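Issue: copy button drops trailing tokens. Both records pasted manually instead:
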Amino acid sequence: MERLTIQQHSEYRRHCAWMERAIALAHEAGQAGDVPVGALVVNAAGNLIATGENRRERDRDPTAHAEVLALRAAGQILNRWDLSDCTLYVTLEPCPMCAGAIVLARIQRLVYGANDPKAGMIRSVGNVPDSPASNHRLEVLPGILESACRDQLQQWFQQRRSTATC
């Protein structure tokens, strides 16, 4: 069994702290009736730049995914589209649209929680970042607080199903 160095342990704890914030954003989305997915963008200095939570239902916008909203907000705040010095944290593996947006924004690192076996286009179903069509490569760290992210989604869908059958 490989032991983590102090630096690796520190990095892991930092990723967990940011993912906890993304989980809180996802909770807000779920409370508002949207699928509970949260995302945030952090710059190279470790500062929070922008956040997003799913808003498809509230905004009646098919593109209002947490990742897209966080990327848009980061671009506006930084006054540029190139986010190559930023890390995106998201509670669920990105879908095809979001994976494409991540590549186009040139995100340096993607950190996500739960895999999406139905639509995940980072590792589960497809691999947009490593595709020959991709003009950008990024570091990918899957599985950060995976159980918490997966449980949040499963509980939300379970609650929706039980409410729908009553």
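Record 2 (pasted manually too):
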Amino acid sequence: MSADFQLEKQSTMNLVESKYRFLKTLGIGTFGKVKLVKNISTGKKYAIKIVKRDRIKDKSMEEKLMREINIMKQLNHKHIIRFYDVIESDTDIYLVLERARKGNLLDLINSKDGGRVQEDEARKIFGQIIDAIEFCHENKVVHRDLKAENILMDSKNNVKVADFGFSVVKEKDQLLKTTCCSPFYAAPEILCKQFYGCEVDIWSCGVILYAMLCGKLPFEDESYPAAFKKIKSADFDLPGHLSSEAGDLISKILVVDPKKRFTISEIRKHSWFDSQNVIVN
């Protein structure tokens, strides 16, 4: 495995379990589990993403993993899950990550009365998501899988954007073509198999904002084809409880034409996104 890291193969028992005490499973993904661990020497807790080698079937999957590691290594931002270390054994690859203390944004939405986040709280959370994504784009990184489940929260409900498995480094004038992203959060240009840029992340941010304020996704349907048809035409309803400013912002983010879609700069200038009310801790 080639990478910017010189990975030293050692016994899992000798290296990982001598350094960390495994506490519990936080989640299960395609390639393995995410575990909560405690550093035996310092007592500090981390999340370790365990990738099983036998599930890396080909070179493209291996390259995808190394791309994720290299991207996370360069993204040092208070609203992005921090990458600390990678440890490789004969059977597993361990990514040592910052621990998010309070679940994800979907958990927060579901915990709220009426299943939705009040606008003042949503404004703070959305502001932190925008800060993180702006930092990614400034560093040429397109996330490509933004969704409520990948927005982790700390004990004070501050954002920690996570899961860079589909992320890619994009040069200034480069356009992307790979189909990825979770279906209900995917921008129309991805579903239409068109070339695309950083604007796909902004669309996904709009879906996240809608989900927070409305307690549901804007393009939900019983079938994927019906949902995709709605996405491709930006066919969604704005509930009556939304403020006119929130509805206007959502309508200017969820725009089919990426050239007409609001930019991050335009989002920040919008009347709903009042910078004086966006608390960034």
